[in-house]
Amino acid sequence: MATTTDPAQKPSTTLAERLLTPSRFPYRTIAMGTVGSTLLMLAAFGAGGILIKDPVLGHGPLSWIRYGHGRMLANAVLYTGFGLVVWAWVRLGRYVLLGRVGSRPVLVAAGCWMAPLLISPPLFTRDVFSYLGQGAQLLYGLDPYANGPAELDVLPNVVQNVHPLWQTTPAPYGPLFLLISKGVVATTGDNMILGVILMRVVLLAGLAGTLWALPRLVKHLGGKLPVALWLAVASPMMVIHLFGGPHNDLMMLAFLTIGVLAALERKHVLAIVLVTIGMLIKPTAAIALPFLVWIWANHLEGDSKVRNFFRAGAASVGLFLPVFVAGTWISLGSLNLGWWSGLKAPQLIANWLNIPTGIGEVFYNLVHLVVDVQVSPFVTVARAAGMLLLIAFGARQWWLGRGGGTEAVYRAGISLLAVAILMPPTLPWYLTWGFVLLSAFKWQPRHLAVVVAVSVFVTLVYYPTGEQALYDWWFIALVVVASLYSAASLLRPDPLGLIDAWRRPEKFLRD
C-alpha cells in the first residue's frame, strides 16, 4: 500500500530530469493497447451505450450489430478489446516496475489508448446522457434539482436517451458542473453524438490539470512518477471509465489534485478555493477540505498548535463560504441549495458492490429462507451502520492527519476511498477519488498487484451498456478469475505458464 516516507530523506531529481530520462520505448505494448481501444470503440456502436435513435447505424446495413447474433459478436469484440487494453497496461506496469521505461512512454500509451474512445459511444455507463439532460434543463430555465429531464418538452433526443431511472430524478451534481453541461448543450443542441464528444473534450481539461499536478505531487509525497502516471492516468479506470464513460469525476479530480498541491506548497488560500470549486463540480471533493486545514495549521508560525488550528480553520471557512455562494450563484443565477437534497438520488442504486448494501442483502436472504420479509429494512439498517462506521473511520483518519504534510494527504486519500466503498452507492469509477491522490506515494509491487485486480474487477462488473452485472454469478466468477490473473501477471509474466505451454508443442515439432 502507499506509504508516507519523507522524500526529503532521499536524493531526488528535478521534474525536468525525471520527464526527460532516456528509456526504451515499448512500441508493441502501446500498439497492443491502441488496437484494443480501437476494438472497444468499434464494438461500442453495437454493445455500448447506444442511442435510442442512432443516426450513424439506424436501420442501415450495419444495424445488425445491435441485435441478436450481431449484438453477441459486438460484445465478443468489445471484451477482446478490453482484454488487450488490460494486457497492455499490465505489461507496461511490469516495465515501469523494472525501471525499463520512464514517464513519457506511459503518457504516450495513455494518450494512444484514449484517442479512439474520443468518438466512441459511452462505455459501461450512460451517465453522460444524464449530464446533457440536466444541462438542457438549466439551459431552458428549469431547475435540475427539483425534477428530472423528463419535464423538458424540447430536445427530444436528449430526453429520451436519459436512463429511465434518472428521467424523473433530480441532479446529484454540483451547480458548476451543471453550468458546464449547459454550455455543452447550448453548443450541440439535440445532437447527442456531438454532445458526448464535446463533453469528453471539455473533461479533457480535467485530465490536463491532473497531469500537471501529479509530477509535482510526486516530488512532495515521495513516489515515483512513472508508477504514479501508470496507476492514475493509464489504468482502465481512467481510460475506459472516466474518459470512455465519460464521467465528471475527471474534472473534479483536477481541482482536487491541484488544490492539494497548492496546500503542500503553502499556497493555502488557493488550495481552499480550488478544492471548493471541485466540490461545486462533484461534492466528494469536500472530504479533502478538513485535511487541508491541518496542512495550513502546521505551516503557521507560533508555539500553540491549538491556536494555529483555529486560525487555519477560521480562515478556511472564511474562504469556503464566499466561494461556495458565488459559485452557486454564478452557476444557477440564485443561491439554490437544492443540490444537497439531490445527493440522495444515487442512493436509489442498490447492489452488493457497496459493502453495507451487500451485507444487508446477505442477512435478508438468510432470513428470507425462513420468513417472507422485504429486503429494504435490512439494506436500510446495514447502510445506516455503514454510515456510522464511515463517520468514525473518517474522524479517526482526520485526527491521524493532524501532523499535516504528507500524512494529511495520505489520510485524505484513504478517506476518499472509504467514502467510495462505504457510502451508497459504490460505483466503479468512484475509486479513482482516492487512487489518484495515493498514486503519488511510494508503492510496493504486491500492493500495485492488488490495485490491478481491483481495477479490472470494478471495470467489468457493469455491462458495456451501463447496466450492472453484479447478480450474474457465472459472469462475476469469470470476472474474478480475470482480475486475479491480471494481478498475478503484474508480478510475473505468464503466471500459469499458458503461453509457454502453447509454445512447447511448436518446439517439439521443430525438434
Question: What can you tell me about this protein's structure?
Answer:
- The chain is mainly alpha-helical.
- 65% of the residues lie in helices and 0% in strands.
- It has helices spanning 15-19, 27-47, 68-97, 103-114, 127-139, 156-160, 175-188, 192-221, 225-232, 236-243, 249-264, 268-281, 289-299, 305-332, 339-342, 355-368, 376-400, 405-422, 432-438, 445-460, 473-491, 498-510.
Structural class: mainly alpha
- By DSSP (H or I, 4+ residues per run), the number of helices equals 22
Distance between the termini: 47 Å
| H and E order | HHHHHHHHHHHHHHHHHHHHHH
Shape: globular
Outline of the structure:
The chain is mainly α and 511 residues long. Helix content is 65%, strand content 0%.
Helix and strand topology:
Elements: H1 15-19, H2 27-47, H3 68-97, H4 103-114, H5 127-139, H6 156-160, H7 175-188, H8 192-221, H9 225-232, H10 236-243, H11 249-264, H12 268-281, H13 289-299, H14 305-332, H15 339-342, H16 355-368, H17 376-400, H18 405-422, H19 432-438, H20 445-460, H21 473-491, H22 498-510
Helix pairs in contact: 2-3, 2-4, 3-9, 3-21, 4-9, 5-7, 7-8, 7-14, 8-11, 10-20, 11-12, 12-13, 12-14, 13-14, 13-18, 16-17, 17-18, 18-19, 20-21
